[in-house]
Every structure is written in structure tokens, then in C-alpha cells.
């Protein structure tokens, strides 16, 4: 039984994390952090916690938290964790950061895309990028775990086997991703009000979304190339789910079955990656679960492969993967507390 | 060709009104009022106006507006129109108020339910309640037209024939109404954000919604009784539409066919009321139109009648009815510019 | 560890049941029954079962099933279970019927509302009505458990304390209930296609829904009266959830706090009933959970109480309650395998 | 005043067409064709026609229809119009075919993609492809008008200026398009039932959708090249709207402003094409209108242009464009009867 704290527990990702942690057999939640709702019972903000916990939201001091926590989850806007996580903190507790501050190894790229300074650059080297399927061994020993972004998780897992095996032109990649509205966080912006979002779809931040360099970093590592790709996200009228269509030009003449075998080999032992074989993923089949579903098609007419990935943005794309990382970091079975069957239709 | 101004043109009701007015063959829009967006082109706020108008939003002075307008529509929160509409104003132009300030004849009831003072009580007597199907002749001569509320329109039209003909116990009425989310207006409140509203239904202001006294006033007039009813609204996960289920205890032993004949007689010449006979209304069939669909069932087991009414809250429940009133006030054909066929599925 | 079979496992309720059973620590699923999909892997029909089970759907013979099952769940259209469940069957295994065949004690009422003959009337007396909060002790010893309907569960739980304590006129009850679309089952009817249901709400079977006599039976038992009530269901554009507004005339002068205390006393030890106190239930807070949330308002103007109940129709309204019953029947902790925290926003 | 018939009037596109025609000032509808609903009043199938028309659906004989119609609209599955439209028919009336049979000039490509024989190949040459913005002069004189597909219209209009001006590599095009559910037609397939479609997104027919050769034909004509592109459609949980993201590699070093000027020049006189300048299109702003909104971004990092197009699939993508074509063919003002302002939020 370990003691866990969550800073930023009342955003959608933080709340999802709490939902998982409160049912995790190896975890006791010792602090629910929320600046906006400090002093209020969590169950008054999210009424699904009625009968679950009487915990009050608090704005705990980092020094206190490190004393009482075996692990601290941070679910905060970028720029805050890079201030709060220091070498001193890491001596006393483990950190799992759901934000972006420790994802990019190159601080210049971070500062260029996020338009803020990084306050603990020296920790970037130590920080482990928590995509379990790619960095499991490093994760086990990590003190500072940087949990990947939602679009990122889906995109990298979809493309990794192709890049690793040099089957596509790394400079040809286009990722066209569609996200549910929870991806935008809990918002009071009119632009995210029901009537403005319902019954419409739009692309946003075309070519300029901050998950781009993160995907490039990881795919670059896999392929051994410095690559540039085009990433386009969409706001889709549904609560949850990411569907990523990844387009790339084939450099081999492998057919669909050949490529699928590459994926089967690559993900052979991965519990949370499901290959959909001759079908393609749909977000409804992963909703509420920690699975990443992946399928692919080859378009012989244009010699391209289209890989389709689907995740729940708040589970495998955030809270579920954070707990998967925690499980690894503390030596629990990787599936503990996150082996959900998607509830359907939900 | 008359000149029309709209004050509060960038709320959902105001915008719907502009959409109708810009295609009305007898109307020229001379001012689009909006305090929030003053100085900005309407088409920058609502991009459906691209190619339609280059009008800028403005916060026009009432004195200026009365000079250049044959009619001024006011689509404002309650408490403002009661200040701005004066006897002087009415000497120079006609007013159609989509708000609540001039709907209740009894100023005490107004002040009790709305918790504000009324600043021009003397005009309450002159104000005509703009439910065309009930007050057509008075509307034709009106200078100050008070446009009914959305729930109100649907509820009164659904029950009017029963009350007028003394077929139900006036003290037995329960109205259980469901509204789309546009009914709450254009909002930046987190409570109306997509993820909080989507895939859920709730009742609100049970027994305390401000449309209650308005319904009581009109049904009281029809029945010649001072009645009290219970009104319950719901927030339904859809953009538009109101469905009102009106329950009442029968005082006669009329069967369904008998009651339907009463409705046919009552609404014989009403273009915008459609009786659904052996089917019941659904909001999809009235969406985008100025129709009110009405159907009914008798429950012999409990000796009750259930009348079901459906309207589009922004059309017959607001902007469409406002234009229907304008048509009457200026001697145009009542259907001019609002004879829409519901677009389906939309 | 008990062995469970599900007949009718590919409808929405059956599938929800399987989802729960496959994660229940005391259950092994030994047969997934489906006439429509016999011979096909469950995971091909519901792709959320990928990585969960390779079970094939089958149309098992009842004689075989009773031999290998400690409990058989039946999730079938009405009229089938009444043929298949016999005294012989009950000697060998326990039955939990999610259908309607054994809910009504009076076979005449059953045959009148369901328009079919009942083939094992003699078992009606033995059958236990599985509303755990009302019949827990009988459930523990049951061989034939009749699981309540979805609307029924929500309505009875909402009204039980009032009827039991004679606080309302039993003949004054009106229940206006709104259900998500899963309530209609998995359907290929155009009337339930996305575009026909989306963005619209309608009432159906007003005064004639088959859950009516079931609610009357249970409330009649509680109040000791033969009562008739009016029940109206609605199809709401969302996947899951039931919200029931229950209107009744007060016979005492108790205020809201007094009535709430009655509810607190009545449900003191009930884990799966949550009282929302000064707030009202919303379906989003119970979705995916086995909770029934209940709140109330008093309308002094008309001397009525309005009780609002909310459940997930597929969980507390079907599969969750079925497992709650199973837990009781086999002596497990009542919460085992169904103690879900609502996932939000989902 | 011309006489128009519609064959296939009860599909979603046919119905949308009727809605427009019944309010078109120059048109009298003389026949509503429907094999499925022959003999039934249109208003019984689509209740929005109550108060609009008492027309009965009929399965009129083509010989009769040509005698009484100035124009016949055909909204049928592929393979039927190619049988029914003959040289004899065209001598007597004008045909506007909303189906696919006369869109592809190369009959081999038609038969290869549609897997049926074409029965009147000799008419393919005469048939005019009814994308008004590209073929206006030919349309004016057409007897046989082939109305473009929905995805097609949006994709071609989005890319035409680039191909015409040789600004992109014609072999580099990827179109990732998202459609509302009406695009699948009125369906009783479980796969399109509310609960299966709601709250999920999926790609389908990746690289194999039949609109692909149609887009290639028109873009090939514009560019003077035989090009192959990759087209991927998605089913999006909303009723209406298409959003197409068109990716292509730039062959010039033009920046965004330069490219936008190309679009402004190309569409200078086009009423129904709106350029969104520094914003990007969203489907909500075109819903219910005949507009095609187009915007673009340049991604300098990968030297690609992303053009975003949005239309209402049932209006500009089907019925609205059909009427736009009719207006041209009969010498009416091109906007007559289709100059709708998008109703918002709807």
C-alpha cells in the first residue's frame, strides 16, 4: 500500500486519475489538490464521489506533500511543474507529471513551442518519458516520470513499428487526429459551451499543436532520424476518445499482411495494445479502457500506409497511463487497477 | 418596407431574430445592438452572416434608435427593458420586447418572481401579451408588445382549449417540460460546457421557474379562475426544442376523439398550430419552424388528460413569434418571412 | 467461485451483465448465450471483449445449462422465460430473470399488459421480486429471482418512503420518466437510427407502458392500498440513464427537511441509494454505477412533493442489480464486483 | 413556373430537395416518387410536411413523368438511373441525377468502382458534371445533369485553385474527410443505430471510397495531369456536415497570403464559396446553407498546404447544388430558393 497525492485533481484528467486511484488495491490517496476548489469536498464538485470519499480539496505545500506521499501526480498546466519539481523533491518522493514540462529532452524546443522558460532544465535528462510500451525498463527505475500527451500516445504507438523497422519515409508523415471535447479540459470558455460544440466538427492548431515536437522526438529516436511531420488535431462532438489517422509513404513493397505481422511482432507482449487486424479501430471500443487499438490499410494506388490508432484520451492518454507507469515504478503488476473492460454503449 | 432595430442581437434569440429579419421581404435591419461586441462585425461573432451583412454591432442610444426605427426588438435580460421603454419611446416607435418585463399584468407578481423593481409600471396595462393565437386583435393595434416566454408559449397553447372549455380541474395542472440547451442562452458557465451537459438530463428550478406565473396568468384568463399550477423544466442534451407534457384531471367524461374535436375547433384557423391527431409531437418535427405541434392522450385509468406540445424554443418560443407579432402589428400577412419547413435531420 | 451462464448475452443488458461478470472475483462465466450470433466469438460482436475472452456465443440447451451452471441469467424478451423456467430447472440451479415474466404476482395483470400467456404460473408465487432495498431477506433465499425493470427500479425507490409512511395520496401519483436510448435495446429499426433520435425528444406509450403495473404492485404493497398511477416514459437523446420525476399530493404538512429525514431513515443502511439532499439528481452522476440517486422538492403553492430519481438503466436498472441480487443469493458481499465510481465525463 | 418531379423523394437527400422545391418561387412539385412508401402521404413519413403538402408518394412510370415534368430529379442508389435515363427521355425533359451513374466520364472506371454495368454509356459524353463553380456555362445548356457527390463537391472546390494554378504536386494529395451521419442515408442497419454511432468516430472505406475517382477526374481536368490521390472518409457523431482536410506538397514557395490571393481570384464571382481568410471553416457555419467555406494553412516545416473545406452534405453536397444547377438550366437567378442563412445553433 503506497500513499499517493494528486495536484490538480479537479481537472478532467486529475479527476479520472482519482477515480482510478480510489479503487486501486495498492494505493491510499492522501491529498486531493485543487487551487480552484480548496476547502471544498471533492464530492461537491464531482458528485460521482458521493459515497466514495469525503476528502476535501486542498492547496497543499509541496514540502508537506513530499513528506507524506510515496508518489505525487501532477496534473497541471505547463510551466508549473518545471518550477515545483526540484532535485530536493526527487530525493524524497517519486513524481508522475501528466503535464508537458518534462517531456521534451531539448529545452530549446520546449521553450520555443511552449513560450515559457524551463526552471529545472537539469532534470530533463533524468526524466523518463512514460510511454510504457517503449520505455518500460527505464520507467521501472524512474524518480521523475513524464507522462505522455494524449494525441502523442496514440500517434507514437500507431507509428512506432513502421519507424523502428524503417518501412516508411520518415519525412512523409501526416497525422490527422480527432479528439473528444474532454481533451480541451474543463472549461468555462463559450467556445466550449454545449451549443457551440454540439453537431459540428473543426480542425484547430493545424501544423502548430504542441504535441508535434513530442511525437517527432520519439519517432526520431525509433528511426534514428531527425524527422519533421505534420500534425492536425480536430475537436469532435463527443466527450471522449482520440482517433488518429497516420499517413506515410511506404519505402518497402510490403502488403497489409506483411505490415500487420510487423505490428504483431512489435507488440507481441503488450497487454494494452490490441491489433484490430482486418477491421479498423473505433473510439467506442476503447472508451473508458486503457487500451490502444491499432489497425492499418495499405493504399497500393498511392503506395501509402494508413495506420489508425484509437485511445481514450483520459485513460491511456492521461490517467490510465499514469497509473500504468506508477504500477511499473512500484513493482506492481502493470495492469493493477486499470484492467477495465470498455462499457458499451456509454 | 419597414426599418427594424434589434437590441441584444448577439444572444441566441437575438441572433435568430436577425436571421429571420435579414430574409424578411418587408424589413430593413437598421441597427444590430450588442453591448458585448460593440464595434465588431456581426459576421465575426456569428460566421453564418458572412456574405449576408457587413453590419457592425453597436450600443445605440435609445433616442437615436427611436428616430430611425419603425420597430425596435429588445432581446435583453429582465429588468432592462422596464427602464428603457417609456411613454416617450412609444410615441415614436413600436416596441417588441422578447424579455419578461411586460408580460405579467400584476406588478407585484413580477417583482416577487423576478426580484427587481419595475420602472414603468404604468405601461403594463397598455402592453399586449403577444401570443398571437390568443390575442390577435389586440396585437394588431399594439405599440408595446410583450413576446411570451418559450416554455410559456408551448404550455399555454397546449392547455388553452381545455381551460377555455372548462374540461379539466384548473388546480390539477402539472407541466413537465423539457428544453434544449439554447434555452439557457449563450453561456460561458462551466455548467453549460459541452462535457457537462452532453449525455445527461436534469430537472432544474422545480416549482420555482419564472415562467410559472406567466402561464398561470394566461390560463387563468381563459378559465376565469385564479389557478396555481406546478411547472418543472428540464435541461435536455440537444440544441433546440421544447416538449411540454401537461397533465390535468378531467372534469368531463370526454374521450380522446371528443377532446381532439375541441382542439380542432379552437385552432381551426391557426396556421402555426398543428394537431398531431393519433400521434404525439416530437421536437424534431418543429425544429427551425414556427409551428406548435399539439397532441393528446386520455388515461382512463386515472381520469387524466395528457397534452403534449412541441415548439422550437428560439422560433415559436422567441424570434419567430416576435416576427409573427410584427407582421400583425404592421399589417403584413402573418406568415411573411417565417413560413419555414423544418429541415430534417438537422 | 460460482459458475454463471447468460442467456441473451448480446443485447445491451446481457452484454452489460457479461462485462460485470467477467470482472467479478467470485464468478466464472461458463456460457454466453445468443441465438442471433451463435457460433461467433463474443469479441467479434462487441469488440470491447478483445483481450477479455475468446468465448463463442452459443444457443445452449436448457438441460445442459442447468447441469453446468450455479446460476443462469436470462436477458430475453418477455414470454420466453415463462416457458423455459420450470420447477425442474429450479431444482438444479438458480435463475435470475432480467425479463418481465415473473415480476407481476397477478397472472391476469401480466397477461393483460403483455398480451401473451404465462406458461408457469405456479412459479409466480415462489418468484422473488429482486429490488434489493425492499426485499433483501427474501432474495437471499430465492431460487427464482425476478429482476425489476429499469423505469420500475427508479420509480419505486423514489417513492417507497412516501408510500410506506402514508405521506402522499396514493391515487395522485404521476411519474414522468426520461430514458436514454439503450433502454430500447439493440435495434435495427429506422426509428432508432442515429439521425432520427439525435437532437430530439419524445414521449411514448403515454399511460400504457408495461412497467406501470409493476410499479403499482410494489407501491401498493408498501402502502397497503390498491393504487393506480400515471406513468409516462420519454426517449431522450443520450445513450444511458433514467431520470424519473415523481409527482404526488402531500397528505401531511411536512416540509422538505422533514421529508428528507424520512428518506434518510428509510435508506439509512442502503449502500446503493444516495440522497442528494438540497441538490437534485442528474443522470450523469450515476452513469456506469449501481447507484440510485434520489432528491426531492416540496411545492407549497400546490401542496405537492416532487421526488427525482436517477439510475443507469443498464446497471441499477438491469445488469448491476442482477449481480447485486446474485451477490445476496450466494452470500457474497452485496457490493462485490459492482462498486463502480461513475466515470465522468463519459 | 416549371414542373418538377422527384424520384426517390423519401431518402434524406430527396427529402431535402423537396423541402427546397416546395418553397422555390419558380417550381411546382408534380410528383413525389418513393417505392418504399408508395401510396402514403409524404407528411406521414416526414411529419415536417404537415401543413405543407398533402402529396402522396408514388412510383410513377418514367413515361408518364417525362410528359408532365419540365425537370426530373433522381435521388436513387447507383445503377438505376443508368437504366432509366435514355436518349428518348432526354428529348422530352431535363434530368438532374443526384446519383453517381453519370459522373464519371470513363465507363471503365465507373464499372470498376461501382461493380455494375452501365446501361447508357453513350449518354456519358453528353452528361454535364454539375459543379456549378467549375462548369457553369455547360450546365446552362445541359439536358442531362449529373450532380456531384457530397465529399466530392467539398474536396474539389477546396483544391481546384491549387491544381488549376499548378501550385502543388498533384500526386501528393491526401484528403481526410469527416461526414455527419445523414451521409449514410436513411438506414435501418444496426450499425447506424443511435447507440452505435453516438459518442464515437471511425474511418471507413479508407482508400476505397467511390468518390475517389470522381475527385481525381475533376482535379485531373483542372491540372491537366492524370493524378492519383488518397481519400479517407469518417463517420462523425453529428447529423450533417462535411469537413475535408486536403493535404498537398507545395511546389512553389508561396506563403499563406499568396495562396489566399489565388483563391480570392479563383472564386471572385462565386456567391456560394466563402473564403474564411485567417480562420478555418467549421461545419456549423454552413449547416443548412448552400455555402462551401474554404480556408487554408501553410506548414512551412514540411512545405505543405492544408486546405480545409466545409459544406452541408445534404445542401451544397446534394439537394442545394441540384437546385443551383436547376436554376442555371432554366435561366433563373442562381440563388433562387437556396439563399439560406445558416440557422445557429441548430
From TrEMBL, chains A, B, C, D:
<dbReference type="Pfam" id="PF01118">
    <property type="entry name" value="Semialdhyde_dh"/>
</dbReference>
<dbReference type="InterPro" id="IPR000534">
    <property type="entry name" value="Semialdehyde_DH_NAD-bd"/>
</dbReference>
<keyword id="KW-0560">Oxidoreductase</keyword>
<dbReference type="GO" id="GO:0051287">
    <property type="term" value="F:NAD binding"/>
</dbReference>
<keyword id="KW-0028">Amino-acid biosynthesis</keyword>
<dbReference type="InterPro" id="IPR050085">
    <property type="entry name" value="AGPR"/>
</dbReference>
<dbReference type="InterPro" id="IPR058924">
    <property type="entry name" value="AGPR_dimerisation_dom"/>
</dbReference>
<feature type="active site">
    <location>
        <position position="150"/>
    </location>
</feature>
<protein>
    <recommendedName>
        <fullName>N-acetyl-gamma-glutamyl-phosphate reductase</fullName>
        <ecNumber>1.2.1.38</ecNumber>
    </recommendedName>
</protein>
<dbReference type="GO" id="GO:0003942">
    <property type="term" value="F:N-acetyl-gamma-glutamyl-phosphate reductase activity"/>
</dbReference>
<comment type="function">
    <text>Catalyzes the NADPH-dependent reduction of N-acetyl-5-glutamyl phosphate to yield N-acetyl-L-glutamate 5-semialdehyde.</text>
</comment>
<comment type="pathway">
    <text>Amino-acid biosynthesis; L-arginine biosynthesis; N(2)-acetyl-L-ornithine from L-glutamate: step 3/4.</text>
</comment>
<dbReference type="InterPro" id="IPR023013">
    <property type="entry name" value="AGPR_AS"/>
</dbReference>
<keyword id="KW-0521">NADP</keyword>
<dbReference type="GO" id="GO:0005737">
    <property type="term" value="C:cytoplasm"/>
</dbReference>
<dbReference type="InterPro" id="IPR036291">
    <property type="entry name" value="NAD(P)-bd_dom_sf"/>
</dbReference>
<dbReference type="Pfam" id="PF22698">
    <property type="entry name" value="Semialdhyde_dhC_1"/>
</dbReference>
<keyword id="KW-0055">Arginine biosynthesis</keyword>
<dbReference type="GO" id="GO:0070401">
    <property type="term" value="F:NADP+ binding"/>
</dbReference>
<keyword id="KW-0963">Cytoplasm</keyword>
<feature type="domain" description="Semialdehyde dehydrogenase NAD-binding">
    <location>
        <begin position="3"/>
        <end position="142"/>
    </location>
</feature>
<dbReference type="InterPro" id="IPR000706">
    <property type="entry name" value="AGPR_type-1"/>
</dbReference>
<comment type="similarity">
    <text>Belongs to the NAGSA dehydrogenase family. Type 1 subfamily.</text>
</comment>
<dbReference type="GO" id="GO:0006526">
    <property type="term" value="P:L-arginine biosynthetic process"/>
</dbReference>
Amino acid at each position: 500500500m503506497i500513499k499517493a497525492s494528486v495536484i490538480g485533481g479537479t481537472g478532467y484528467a486529475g479527476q479520472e486519475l482519482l477515480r482510478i486511484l480510489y479503487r486501486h488495491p495498492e494505493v491510499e490517496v492522501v491529498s486531493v489538490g485543487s487551487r480552484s476548489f480548496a476547502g471544498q469536498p471533492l464530492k461537491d464538485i464531482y458528485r460521482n464521489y458521493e459515497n466514495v470519499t469525503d476528502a476535501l480539496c486542498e492547496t497543499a505545500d509541496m514540502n508537506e506533500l513530499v513528506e507524506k506521499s510515496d508518489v505525487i501526480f501532477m496534473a497541471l498546466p505547463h510551466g508549473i511543474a518545471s518550477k515545483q519539481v526540484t532535485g530536493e523533491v526527487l530525493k524524497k518522493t517519486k513524481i508522475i507529471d501528466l503535464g508537458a514540462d518534462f517531456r521534451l529532452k531539448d529545452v530549446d524546443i520546449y521553450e520555443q513551442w511552449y513560450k515559457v522558460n524551463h526552471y529545472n532544465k537539469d532534470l530533463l535528462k533524468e526524466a523518463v518519458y512514460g510511454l510504457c510500451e517503449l520505455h518500460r525498463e527505464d520507467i521501472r527505475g524512474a524518480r521523475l516520470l513524464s507522462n505522455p500527451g494524449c494525441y502523442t500516445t496514440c500517434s507514437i504507438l500507431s507509428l512506432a513499428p513502421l519507424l523502428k523497422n524503417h518501412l516508411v519515409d520518415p519525412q512523409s508523415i501526416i497525422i490527422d487526429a480527432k479528439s473528444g471535447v474532454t481533451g480541451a479540459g474543463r472549461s468555462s470558455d463559450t467556445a466550449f459551451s454545449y451549443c457551440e460544440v454540439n453537431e459540428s466538427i473543426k480542425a484547430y492548431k493545424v501544423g502548430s499543436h504542441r504535441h508535434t515536437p513530442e511525437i517527432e522526438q520519439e519517432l526520431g529516436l525509433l528511426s534514428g532520424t531527425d524527422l519533421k511531420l505534420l500534425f492536425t488535431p480536430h475537436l469532435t462532438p463527443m466527450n471522449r476518445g482520440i482517433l488518429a489517422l497516420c499517413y506515410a509513404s511506404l519505402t518497402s513493397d510490403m502488403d497489409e499482411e506483411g505490415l500487420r505481422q510487423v505490428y504483431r511482432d512489435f507488440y507481441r507482449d503488450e497487454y494494452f495494445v490490441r491489433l484490430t487486424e482486418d477491421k479498423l479501430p473505433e473510439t467506442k471500443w476503447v472508451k473508458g479502457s486503457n487500451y490502444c487499438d491499432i489497425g492499418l490499410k495499405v493504399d497500393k494506388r498511392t503506395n501509402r500506409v494508413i495506420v489508425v490508432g484509437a485511445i481514450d484520451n483520459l485513460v491511456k492518454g492521461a490517467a490510465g497511463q499514469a497509473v500504468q507507469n506508477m504500477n511499473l515504478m512500484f513493482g506492481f503488476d502493470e495492469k493493477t487497477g486499470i484492467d477495465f473492460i470498455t462499457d458499451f454503449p456509454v
